Each structure stands twice: as structure tokens, then as C-alpha cells.
Amino acid sequence: MSLEMSNINGGNGTQQPQDKRELLCLLKLLKKYQLKSTEELLCQEANVSTADLTSISDSDVQQVLSSALRLGDGDQEREHSQHPPHESKQSAVTEANAAEALAKFIGDEGFDAQQYEQAYEELRAFVEDSLDIYKHELSMVLYPILVQIYFKMLASGLRDKAKSFIEKYKCDLDGYYTEGLFNLLLLSKPEELLENDLVAAMEQDKFVIRMSRDSHSLFKRHIQDRRQEVVADIVSKYLHFDTYEGMARNKLQCVATAGSHIGEAKRQDNKMRVYYGLLKEVDFQTLTTPAPAPEEEDDDPDAPDRPKKKKPKKDPLLSKKSKSDPNAPSIDRIPLPELKDSDKLIKLKALREAGKRLALSKDQLPSAVFYTVLNSHQGVTCAEISDDSTLLACGFGDSSVRIWSLTPAKLRALKEADALRELDKESADISARMLDDRSGETTRSFLGHTGPVYRCAFAPEMNLLLSCSEDTTIRLWSLLTWSCVVTYRGHVYPVWDVRFAPHGYYFVSCSYDKTARLWATDSNQALRVFVGHLSDVDCVQFHPNSNYVATGSSDRTVRLWDNLTGQSVRLMTGHKGSVSSLAFSACGRYLASGSVDHNIIVWDLSSGSLVTTLLRHTSTVSTITFSRDGTILAAAGLDNNLTLWDFHKVTEDYISNHITVSNHQDENDEDVYLLRTFPSKNSPFVNLHFTRRNLLMCVGLFKS
Q1: What is the rounded distance in angstroms from the CA atom of residue 26 to the CA atom of residue 61?
Q2: What is the largest CA-CA distance in the chain?
């Protein structure tokens, strides 16, 4: 951005108070959008200090902008009256484009609202009078056609007629469409259609309806026999029928996958193969056995005859060979960072700890510990526990991030450079020696964001922390120097979520700008931009093999993206509200998603099909996690309840075909898979985390 400045101080070299106020408002705006070089140049040219900005508030900026826009409109009108038409050609083109876009909704010049309403009334009667076996599938066409007729009425300027049309027929639709219809009723001008997310979604992608061939034939015959040209025109432009052979679906089957802004997923959306298996882990036996060998050979030639010292290290846990998974991607499918010795030791420690893991089942439920954040006047916006369960990070509404140690060990910083040079780099405990014991503290804070922090994420190596904020940036913090290392810029709106890859190096973010982005820690540019959602992307999660990323959106869909190609390989519909949380199963085949609609849905990534819907919560499901052995699914939300589900039984029943989309929990025998519910006193849950030994750790914010 560049600014041209001519005689800012006026002809007499003095600034008027009003001019200076406007100038300071402009500087405040430049500072807000972090245009530092332009801000410095303007301060230098106008001889203004940045300290003067403290007297300017956001409301002052907004007021000056509003008056400038009004003045601009007045100047434009005067220009239009004084100058020939060709000088206002640009505004005329803009108006022509808007008129052309609105004309697309109307379809023809002789638009007759009464004709459309009569056609919809006949369609509604046809659906109502059809046989019960076909009625539920046929009723799926009512919502998109109702909405398109509303768009046409509003585009024609018939606002009152359009509103009464929606009010008259909205009771025929399922309850999960109420929110969308309510938002549509807020539209008051034809021009607002061009800026609405739902309108844009239906313009970009046809509304998809899965329907049996028999139901589709009945629908087509009705349109042709009744000569409903107006309905036929809407169907051809805005609806896509994904037909299949076989019996028509019942009410439960239709509702299970309905609710998104684009209808249901097409079958071809889930045709690509997904390598959901886990990568083969490093052979830890090669890491542990060579270490003592040189000492024994140097000291005693009989060392090979004395295996006693090696026995503890050659335990079954380490010598167990990991089987090659036919569904796993090749190890070199995407470039993964090479493991350093320190990384291998961390993994080895994790593996030894996992050997002491408690096996969970319906008869052996996990113990749970609940950390409650008290007196947080800034408001806790997120919480995250490190993989080794030693650190807790919380983000706050005042743009700060705070770290606590959950163990007696204090948070230490690196020693000074001179002290580090004196250390023996070959020492086995070099990592501990690098830290200064005198700097140990129980809690530390990070400051740098300029808006609420919405998510924190620890690196697998435990030396870095990511945070994302309303200020559109992502920051990488060092847990050794306790400072910001990199600021990543790319999103243009608030960033809602950020997650590290299980193998480190990569991380993924998602934003209000309707995109998710894949990054690497050593690059300030995004490696992939995942585009396809029709509303803001609210949550994101890495697959355990780091090859895929799952996203949940306010368009009520869940998508799976391939990090190698950047393509969407799974599209899953079924939620009736924004998707708020995601979690992959330990085996990598299943994905669980929680939503504002209070439901938890389990998906099979091998086919993209819905496994089951778990109903128990009475408010938004804000966090989900799987136990380390994959047998228990834990979920919690804003209803102050923690639920534990028997995921082992869910997968058993699914694989043996005891549950299908048509019988994914008969309306609802909710205790089939529910093991236990734990209520908190008055603390909504912010985060859930299973330790390596399967202890469940919860974090919540006390609401007084």
C-alpha cells in the first residue's frame, strides 16, 4: 500500500484540529492493519508522533470513515451532474453487474410471484399425498425450492411478499432449517442477496439430494404432468439428484445425512482412496541395543557372553515388530522431518510409559482429573495440555497466552550463550544441562497478539508452542527462550484453530476466511490452501499419519483433505449446526465430530459414510478425544457434562453390520454406547486430554 501526500499541513503550514484528528484516525487504521512502513512515512511527512494515537478510539475512526464515505457519495453525485456520462462509466458498470446478478435470480422479466407460490403449493400437496415409502425422500426438495422462490421474490423487490411466503410454509420443513430461514428473513434489500453466504453457496454448487430412482421418476412425472415450468426451471439450475437403485430411504435415513447448506454429499465426493493406516514407527531396538555395546567390548572381551545387562532393554515392548498396514501411506509419500536422537529418546520414553497404560473397557473406566480456571477476568478462550501431560497452556481474551507446569519441575529458560559454550555437547543429559535452574518458574506468559487467542498447540518435541488469534496471525513461541520465534501471516480474517502434525514440522490453521492452510515451521508462506467450505472453517485436526487434515465448518460439513495434492477426498454431511470439534481414532480409520447441534457423529474414513450419531449433550460439544488405546470416546461441552462412550462396541457393531445409517440409534436408545456421564458443578469444559497411561485430564472455566 502506498500513500500520496500533498501539502498535508495546508497552505499556511499549520494543522487545523479537525484535520489533525482525521490524520490520527488514518494512522490508527494503518496501525490496526500493521502497515508499518506506510505509518512511519506518514508520521514523518506530517510531523506527527505515534504517542498522539492514544487519544483516538475505534469509534472515532469509524466516525471519520463514515463521514468520508458520505462525502464521497455527495461528490460522486455532484460529479455525475457536472460531467459527461462517460466519466461515470465505472459506477455504471458496477450497477449493471449488480442488476445482471439480480436478474439471474428472477429468470425472466415477466416474473409472477403468484404463479411461483401456486406452483409451490401444488408441489407441497403432491409430496403430502404421495405414498409413505416415497414421502420422506420427496419432501427433501421442498427446502431448496422454497429458498429459491424466496430469492426471486426478494430480487424483484417484493420484500413483504417474500417474507410472508417463508412464514406461511416454513412449518412444513424440518427444524434444522429454521436457523437458515431466520437468517434469510433478515435480508431486506435485493442487493444483500449478492453478499449472503447461503445465496453464494447455492449459486456455486447445486443443492444435492440423494433419491431412489423410483422417487425421482415420481417427481419428474409430477413436474411434467402439471406443466410446472417454473419449478422445472429451478430444479434444472439449482438442484442435483444423486439417484440410486433400490428402496427409498425412510425418515431417519434422510435426516441422518441432511442439514448442510449444500444438501448431501455426492457419491463421487467420497470415491478417492484414503490411506488411513498408521505409518510404521522407528525400530527402537536399534536405538537402544548399540549404546552399551562399545563399553562392554572395550572393557571385557567376554561381553557377548553376558546378556544380563541387555535384558532389561530388550523387553517385548521394544522388540515387538510393527506390522505393515496395507491401508497406510508410504513413508515417503510426504516429506517428513528426520528424527534427531533427542526426538527418538522422547519417543522411546513415550513408548515405555505406554507400556504401563491401563487397558480401558466398559468395566474399567478411566479416572478423571479436572483443572478449573478460577478468577480469570480476561476470559479463558482455549486450553491445551502437552502430549506428555506436563504442561498446560491457556489462551485469554486479553490476547495473552499463559503456561503452567503440571509437575513439580519448574519452567526453566536456556542459559546465557557463554555458559552454553562451556557445556560438553556429547553429554547424555545435555538437554537438561542447557537449562538454567535459577530461572525456574511455575508459570510463564507470552504477550504479542493484539486480539483474543483462540487456540494453542504444543509441538510433539515439546520445545515449541503455536497460538492463533483474532488479529489474523499465528505465532510460534519457543519454550526454551520463552519468546516469539516467528509470526505467520496469510489469513485475512480471525484464525479460529491451529494444530501441529503428530510427526512435527507441519501445522494447519483455519479461519473465518473460509479456508484452511497447511504450513511448515521453517516457511512463512502456506504450503497448501484448502478451499471448498462455503462458510468459515471453525476447527481442524491432523490425521495420526500426518498425510491428511480434517476440517469442520459453519456450513455444517466435515471435509478430509489430502496434504499431498491439496484436494478434498471426503465430504461428510449430517450435522445440523456448525461443527465445533474433531478427533481421529487411535487406528486412524474413524473420525468423530462434535457440533453446535449437541450431537457427536462418528464417520468411517474408508468410505466417508456415517457410522453412528451419539446423542446425550444438551449444548455445544466443545471438545472430543479418544483414549490412547482407542476403546473409549470422551466428549464434553458447554452443558457442563463429560460423557464417556464405548467406542469399542461402536466399531464392533459397525463392522458386524449391526448398526447402519438406517439404524444408527433408534431415536434414541442413548444408553446403548454411553458408559458414564460426569457433571461439573458450574464449569463448561474447554479441553479433554488422555495421558499416555489413560488418565483423563479435563480443563474448564468456572462460571460464577
Answers
A1: 7
A2: 105
The whole-number pLDDT of residue 260 equals 87
Give which of 205, 145, 222, 140 is closest to 176, Cα–Cα. Answer: 140
- Structure letter (DSSP) for residue 106: H
**What pLDDT was estimated at residue 8?**
31
For residue 694, give every residue at least 6 positions away whose Cβ sits within 8 Å of its Cβ, in sequence order, or none: 357, 358, 359, 360, 366, 627, 628, 629
Name the DSSP class of 280: P
**Was domain 368-421+433-701 assigned CATH 2.130.10.10?**
yes
Domain 98-257 has CATH 1.25.40.500: yes
Give the pLDDT confidence of 580-627 residue by residue, as tens digits.
999 999 999 999 999 999 999 999 999 999 999 999 999 999 999 999
Question: For the purposes of burial, counting CB atoms within 10 Å of the CB of 82, is it exposed (0-12), middle (13-18) or buried (19 or more)?
Answer: exposed
Interatomic CA distance for residues 415 and 419, integer angstroms:
6
Per-residue pLDDT at 99: 53
Residue appearing with cell numbers 442488476: 99
Residue pair 615/609 in contact by the 8 Å Cβ criterion = no
Amino acid present at 299:
D
Closest listed residue to residue 697, CA positions, set 395, 390, 443: 390
The position carrying cell 501411506 is 329
| CA 485 – CA 559 distance, rounded (Å) | 31
In 596-668, the DSSP E strands lie at: 599-604, 609-615, 621-626, 632-637, 641-646
Separation in Å, CA 355 to CA 65, 348, 428, 497: 63, 11, 24, 32
Reference 207, options 551, 573, 507; nearest CA is 573
CA dist 44 → 5, 24, 27, 40, 698 (Å): 11, 13, 12, 6, 52
Other Cβ atoms closer than 10 A to 81: 7
Shortest CA distance to 383 belongs to which of 401, 405, 366? Answer: 401
Q: Which residues contact 203 (CB under 8 A, 6 or more apart)?
A: none
Tell whether the model's pLDDT for residue 495 goes beyond 70. yes
Predicted confidence at residue 86, as pLDDT, reads: 43
Distance, in Å, from the CA atom of 63 to the CA atom of 55, rounded to the nearest integer, reads 15
* pLDDT tens readout for residues 13-68: 334 466 777 778 878 777 776 666 677 777 776 777 777 777 787 777 777 776 76
Closest CA to 533 of 508, 506, 507, 561: 561
DSSP-derived secondary structure letter, 360: P
- The answer to whether the CB of 218 falls within 8 A of the CB of 138 is yes
Question: Which pLDDT value is given to residue 659?
Answer: 62
Per-residue pLDDT, 318: 56
Residue 649 corresponds to which amino acid? K
574 class by beta-carbon count within 10 Å (0-12 exposed, 13-18 middle, 19+ buried): buried
- For the chain, the structural domain boundaries read 98-257, 368-421+433-701
Give residue-wise pLDDT tens across range 564-583: 999 999 999 999 999 999 99
Q: Cell triple for residue 547? A: 498425510
Looking at per-residue pLDDT, the higher value among 291 and 473 belongs to 473
Q: What is the pTM of this model?
A: 0.79
Q: Which residues sit opposite 210 in a β-bridge?
A: 242
Average pLDDT of the residues of the chain = 82
List of residues 6+ apart from 157 with CB closer than 8 A? 190
What the block records as the C-alpha cell of 523 is: 516457511
Residue 293: strand, helix, or coil: helix
pLDDT at 314: 55
- Please name the residue that has the C-alpha cell 436478474: 103
Decide: residue 469, CB within 10 A, 0-12 exposed, 13-18 middle, 19+ buried: buried
Q: What would the grid cell of residue 626 be? A: 479418544
Model confidence band, residue 189 (pLDDT cutoffs 50, 70, 90): confident
Q: Which long-range contacts (CB under 8 A, 24 or more apart) does 649-655 make?
A: 649/362, 649/673, 650/602, 650/611, 650/612, 651/590, 651/611, 654/604, 654/611, 654/612
Tell me, what's the pLDDT at 92? Answer: 40
> Rounded to the nearest 5°, which phi and psi values hold at 642?
-110, 125
